[in-house]
Amino acid sequence: MILVTGGAGFIGANFVLDWLACNGEPVVNLDKLTYAGNLQTLGSLEQDPRHRFVRGDIGDRELVSRLLTEHRPRAVINFAAESHVDRSIHGPGDFIQTNVVGTFNLLEAVRDYWSTLAEGEKQDFRFLHVSTDEVYGTLTAEDAPFCETNRYEPNSPYSASKAASDHLVRAWHHTYGLPVLTTNCSNNYGPYHFPEKLIPLVILNALAGKPLPIYGDGQQIRDWLYVKDHCSAIRRVLEAGKTGETYNVGGWNEKANLDVVRTICAILDELQPRADGKPYAEQITYVADRPGHDRRYAIDARKLEKELGWKPAETFDSGIRKTVAWYLANRDWTDAVTSGTYRQWMDKHYGAGA
To answer: What does the alpha-carbon distance between residue 269 and residue 285 come to, in Å, rounded to a whole number?
Structure first.
């Protein structure tokens, strides 16, 4: 049994689906169901006895303690986080509450539970904290990619809150001996991505005939990681990672935002051409850059490959084609998300105010 927090969000839900498909070990899935949590993503598990969903907050120490005592997981994988940079700029308080205070309360509940385990169970237990490359700050075009020893230099309220959570996880290991693992990943993309993020936003706006907004000059560079590759990396770190260590997870796919958008347009031109025969790239529009926009992120994932034998299976070309095809084939999911009807379903089943 494992406990996954934030398992109804984009990366967490993909992880839960992949986990049960790969090894079948039961999952208790704790998620607060904020705007980005979507149980429709987990619809295929609705009758699966291996998956138990619990609506709740990682900051609710009493609830987390009860789940730990009842289910006695051998590992906790923490995906729960507020993660959208634009939202953190307009409302940083939620990010501090979830990413910092919530992580603290989760760590304390887990520490209490871990302290009650028998010696062998203590040694086998793991707390895996999923974080981001944004904690390292920004790079110039000439800089080497981020490695695990880079200094933390977060530049947004989001990345600062995640940096704080990383420091808490490290401290709980060094002070209390809690057996932790931390992963810092690059930009994820793939199925079930909430459509305010760049790639799904561009796909859906293109199909709807809307502008495709590009911040600034579009030359901000990101290292793109297919979400299922990220899931396989987390499974490998959980299986064989050394406690107390950090592992960077990247796709070795540095792309400028403008190039990403043009690639999506070209694939849509091929798979679902516009009715007027014109290219989707005509819909590209440049908008004012956001405050403090980091210029470049890049991950050096050689430690993960050298020590644990992991490397991504997808190139950007293969992964983005799979992603576009998934969105074309799953319009019910995207329509529910963009219309907000998925929220109505959750409010009906779990109460309003998620």
So the answer is: 18
Q: Give the pLDDT confidence score for residue 347 in this predicted structure.
A: 54
Segments making up each domain of the chain, as ranges: 2-289+296-350
In a 10 Å sphere around its CB, with 0-12 CB exposed, 13-18 middle and 19+ buried, how is residue 3 labelled?
Answer: buried
Q: Which of 136, 158, 327, 342 is catalytic?
A: 158
133, 223, 294, 314: the catalytic one is 133
What is the mean pLDDT for each group of 10 consecutive residues in the chain (354 residues)? Answer: 97 98 95 88 95 97 98 98 80 92 98 97 98 95 95 94 98 98 97 89 94 91 97 98 98 96 98 97 90 87 98 97 97 83 50 43
Catalytic residue among 82, 134, 294, 300: 134
Whether 192 sits among the annotated catalytic residues: the reply is no
The topology (CATH level 3) of 2-289+296-350 is Rossmann fold (3.40.50)
Phi-psi region of 2 (alpha: psi -120 to 50; beta: other; left: phi over 0): beta
Q: Mean pLDDT for the chain? A: 93
Separation CA 280–CA 328 (nearest Å): 15
Q: How far is CA 278 from CA 265, 266, 281, in A?
A: 11, 11, 9
End-to-end CA distance of the chain: give it in Å, rounded: 26
Residue 294: active-site member:
no
